[in-house]
Amino acid sequence: MPANNYKKDSIIIASSQLHHFIRNIFLRNGLSEEHAETAAYALVKANLRGVDSHGVARVPMYCERLRLGVANPQPQITVSRVASAVALVDGDDGLGLIVGKKGMAEAIHIAHEFGIGLVGVKHSGHYGMAALYILQAIEADCVGFAFTNASPALPVWGGRDQFLGTNPFAAGAPTDDIPPFVVDMACSVIARGKLKFAAQRGEPIPEGLALDKNGRPTTDGKEAFEGVVLPFGGVKGTALSMLMEVLSGVLTGAAFGGEVRNPFTDLEGPQGTGHFFLALKADLFRSFDEFKQRMQTLTKRVKAQTLAEGFEEIQIPGEPEQRTEIARLKNGIPLTLDVVETLKSEAELAGLSFPTL
Amino acid sequence: MPANNYKKDSIIIASSQLHHFIRNIFLRNGLSEEHAETAAYALVKANLRGVDSHGVARVPMYCERLRLGVANPQPQITVSRVASAVALVDGDDGLGLIVGKKGMAEAIHIAHEFGIGLVGVKHSGHYGMAALYILQAIEADCVGFAFTNASPALPVWGGRDQFLGTNPFAAGAPTDDIPPFVVDMACSVIARGKLKFAAQRGEPIPEGLALDKNGRPTTDGKEAFEGVVLPFGGVKGTALSMLMEVLSGVLTGAAFGGEVRNPFTDLEGPQGTGHFFLALKADLFRSFDEFKQRMQTLTKRVKAQTLAEGFEEIQIPGEPEQRTEIARLKNGIPLTLDVVETLKSEAELAGLSFPTL
Predict the structure, then answer these.
(1) From B282, which residue of chain A is nearest by alpha-carbon distance?
(2) B47 contacts B61 by C-beta, under 8 angstroms
(3) Mean pLDDT, chain A cut into blocks of 10 residues (357 residues total)
(4) pTM here?
(5) Nearest in space to B279 (alpha carbons), one of A303, A83, A74, A307
(6) CATH number of B1-68+318-357
(7) How close B186 gets to chain A, by Cα (Å)?
(8) Under a CB-based contact definition with an 8 Å cutoff, are residues B242 and A316 in contact?
């Protein structure tokens, strides 16, 4: 999803400077050099791609969990091969950002031996922007899938209370000379932050986005924010979200069915999140060059389609995020002042200073 | 999707009688005993589950392709292991119903050896109701995925012409004492048949379902039917449909990017459809009994959710279809008179008679 640019009051910081700062915060919160690098990379990458909701704004959440001991700063992550081409990763309640990277790395490792590799993960936490793991697979010349469950946020089709996670569906494939093909989409029809914004402004919202707290469809921003966001595509989004729950939770042995703890509000214990990573070599049926050539042909045909009313261009999944990344690598990452304030507080707790700009 | 019950003029036929009749039609059109059984099973199973759009109403389409030689009645389907846990199935332009079954069977076979099995399929055709292959995996105690590409039907996000297939997304998992968990959903927001119905009645349709022939959003049933149906969930449905195209077409070496021929209207050559089948054992991380127990727990929690306004019950994906199947196994399958007429014509061409009821 593109950046929320509605807050005008922001500063600009170079991604390398931000990375260095976030890495140091994680180091001071007990992570190893390697894990602090991984966590900082994951969050700054989200900001670079314009997915600010999953970027450094989440540092205070991760650090609070580390300080309270409900996320393990020194996890002993174990990998067990449960079948020839399948491994179980036990994250030992480490940060999802770190456990997730290990999970996809193992799936890729297996894929290079067997053509395809599956990894189930348990005892993990919120793993950040799902596209991270797809890009990891793509860098290894693989097609990748990354599924996760999450704390209750969406009602089931016909229900009115939060039960299913927003459980992003993520998959992608390598390309050549064109943006990598990266699908990363929450099963919710709209980000909750957008309802909050409508509520604050007293604006109406379109039909079909939310239920009020009594389970009635609403177009009132405030009522919607007090109620629940609906899955995208109605019953279809529900089915996808439930599938992510089956694969990431039921299958792997992780928490499931409403048990995954909310990373922000439930500090009583580890989240118990589960993930499901799949990697397959892109050159299974054709050479890698042919695969990339075919991806380029598909992309060209897609982009050459006659435009519908109201559109100026057709982009492929992952292209808007890549454009943002190119721009932000060059021009820096905008951070809203409220995010800067929370990062300054984290810096103070860690005995560090927010970077001088 | 539930049955289209809007046509009142229909007959009722026992599923066994219908199966026998359809099997004989395929035999007379040159299929082997085994393949005729498979094709008849696939189509009657769709009718049993209420997916009448993918049932015996399609017999004339399949048979016309067989008679014209653009579908191969005697395909030499080959299976090549391209990596330890991955096979390529070349369908030799046989009916998708038959090639698809072979593809999922091979994925299951590999999964039982390596934990997970992937099969790419090329030189196939329309494979019918995608849930068929999910049920096949479930019967083998596997979690299954079945993806396919298809002839152009949906615009890309921002486009206005048919380009992507409706490319159903299908996946599922075995259960115990509850309906199997079966997700099978087209990437279109509504079936084109429903627009046709609205057009015939001159009824309006809700916003967001279709563009008119000039690429403008429309709520006029007739304009919509002359235009294009949109993907579900807007850009998200487009991304899913394009992913199916990447996996089933680009990756496998099948036709892709607008090349798959329309099974009804393009009789110039084989369809060239590609499929992507994935099977994984449900007992990879926990015992099979535990897996089923956890599925039951999830289902019970889903069904116990407080109802939203306008709902009387919460059902899980695949449950409505299973209910229809139980009812139709007992009471028979309704066939509309127009479908009966086309089947009678097929029977005549094959030197057979439509069954006496």
Answers:
(1) A251
(2) no
(3) 55 98 98 98 98 95 98 98 98 98 98 98 98 98 98 95 94 92 94 81 88 92 90 92 98 98 96 98 98 97 96 97 98 96 96 92
(4) 0.95
(5) A83
(6) 1.10.1530.10
(7) 9
(8) yes
User: Using a CB-CB distance cutoff of 8 angstroms, which residues of chain B are in contact with residue A301?
Assistant: 163, 257-258
Asked if the domains A1-68+318-357 and A74-188+231-304 are classified in one and the same CATH topology, the answer is no
- For residues B244-257, average pLDDT: 98
CATH number of A74-188+231-304: 3.30.1370.60
Provide the residue type at A301 as one letter: R
A155, A161, A250 member nearest B298 (Cβ): A250
B252 with A315: Cβ contact below 8 A: no
pLDDT 10s digits, A310-334 = 999 999 999 999 999 999 999 999 9
Chain B interface test: which of A116, A123, A212, A277 (most B C-beta within 10 Å): A116
Q: Does the CA dihedral A60-A61-A65-A66 come out positive or negative?
A: negative
- B-chain CB neighbours of A88 within 8 Å are 284-285
Could you tell me the residue ranges of all domains in chain B? 1-68+318-357, 74-188+231-304
Identify the H or E element spanning B45.
helix B33-48
Q: Which two tokens stand for residue A348?
A: 């103070």
The ipTM value here is 0.95
Look at chain B and count its residues.
357
CA distance B203 to B197: 8
pLDDT tens digits, residue range B310-340?
Answer: 999 999 999 999 999 999 999 999 999 999 9
What is the helix (H) or strand (E) element at residue B90, kind and residue range? strand B86-90
Q: With an 8 Å Cβ cutoff, are B280 and A118 in contact? A: yes
Contacts of B293 in chain A (CB under 8 A): none
- B245 CB neighbours in chain A (<8 A) are 298
How close A356 gets to chain B, by Cα (Å)? 40
Strands A86-90 and A78-83, by their bridges, are antiparallel
